[in-house]
Design a protein that fits this description.
The structure is a single chain. This protein is of the alpha+beta class and about 290 residues long. It contains 9 helices and 20 strands. Strands 1, 2, 3, 4, 5, 6, 7, 8, 11, 12, 14 and 17 form a 12-stranded mixed beta sheet that branches. It has a 5-stranded mixed beta sheet with strand order 9-20-19-15-16, with no helix packed on it. Strand 15 and strand 16 form a beta hairpin. The longest helix is centred in the C-terminal third of the chain and has 11 residues, at about 225-235. It is globular and about 55 Å long. The termini are far apart. Residues about 30-35 and about 290-293 have low confidence and may be disordered. The structure holds manganese (II) ion. Manganese (II) ion binds near residues 134 and 163. Manganese (II) ion (MN) binds near residues 82, 132, 134 and 163.
């Protein structure tokens, strides 16, 4: 199943070009804790899922996707855990020494999330801002020190993610946490529809240019290992997002660009780019005294 948020915080179930509004259904069955939000759906998924599968959807409000305003499918995730250098070809293009095995994971600010059709705001007109197309997943069950073999039990579903980044020497959490720097969507596809996350084609375009073309089988830490590793550091809660890292082909984006990331069996996310708010940066982001730590 594919779920998203739309029209001012309503919860939608998507099938082909139709969207069913689940908001009232969930509220009517809610004890107060189960609201219409995606997080409530995720937290209560084991109870809600059989109801949805048995529900006659024709009794619910039904709309056409093109008539609604899609929003980020998970507007304010608890945290966004991200993987640096998790494809060998990206390591080579960035000319860096370590991989995720050396670097660990980093965090992106939850406030950087935007959704389909939204616009990435370039912060600085004198710095390079790049696109990074990535497979991301949403945690469904609390995970603390889980093994790779049990990891996928803790996944709710998958979504496309753009890990937008300025280049330079600041910490990753700074360079990748500007407002609008984490487009996700266009929906969350439940894991049963995706199957093995270790064999998905991923493509990313900027305008007509195909910049990234990869398969998630080439991830250094695949999804299970990522969960094993991240959950050995921090407890993962329902609604947390983990993004798996980007393959080769990152490059600058500019005012007026359209960025698309498409992942097999997951979805196709498109956003715009604006440089109209860009200012000069407080630093050039390069310091010889800092070196390449
Ligand atoms: Mn990335």
């Amino acid at each position: 199943m594919r779920f998203t948020m739309f029209n001012g915080g309503r919860l939608g179930l998507i099938h082909e070009d139709r969207i069913w509004d689940l908001t009232s259904l969930l509220e009517s069955e809610s004890t107060g804790e189960l609201g219409g939000s995606m997080l409530d759906l995720i937290r209560n998924w084991e109870d809600v899922r059989p109801k949805l599968e048995g529900e006659d959807l024709t009794e619910l409000p039904e709309l056409t996707i093109s008539d609604v305003s899609l929003e980020p499918p998970l507007p304010l995730p608890g945290k966004i855990v991200a993987a640096p250098v998790n494809y060998m070809d990206h390591k080579q293009e960035m000319n860096v020494k370590g991989t995720i095995a050396d670097l660990g994971v980093f965090l992106k600010a939850s406030s950087s999330v935007i959704g389909p059709g939204d616009v990435i705001e370039i912060p600085y007109n004198d710095r390079r801002t790049d696109q990074e197309g990535e497979l991301a997943f949403v945690i469904g069950k609390t995970a603390r020190r889980v093994s790779a073999s049990e990891a996928l039990d803790h996944v709710f579903g998958y979504t496309c993610l753009l890990d937008i980044s300025i280049r330079g020497q600041e910490d990753r959490s700074t360079r990748k946490s500007f407002d609008t720097f984490t487009p996700i969507g266009p929906w969350i596809t439940t894991k049963d529809e995706v199957g093995d996350p270790g064999g998905l084609d991923l493509r990313c375009w900027v305008n007509e240019e195909l910049r990234q073309e990869a398969n998630t089988r080439d991830l250094i830490y695949g999804v299970p290992r990522l969960i094993e590793y991240a959950s050995s550091v921090m407890t993962l809660y329902p609604g947390d997002i983990i993004t798996s890292g980007t393959p080769a082909g990152v490059g600058p984006i500019m005012d007026g660009d359209r960025v698309v990331v498409e992942i097999e069996r997951v979805g196709r996310l498109e956003v715009g780019v604006s440089g109209k708010q860009a200012t000069s940066s407080p630093k050039q982001g390069v310091s010889e005294t800092l070196g390449s730590r």
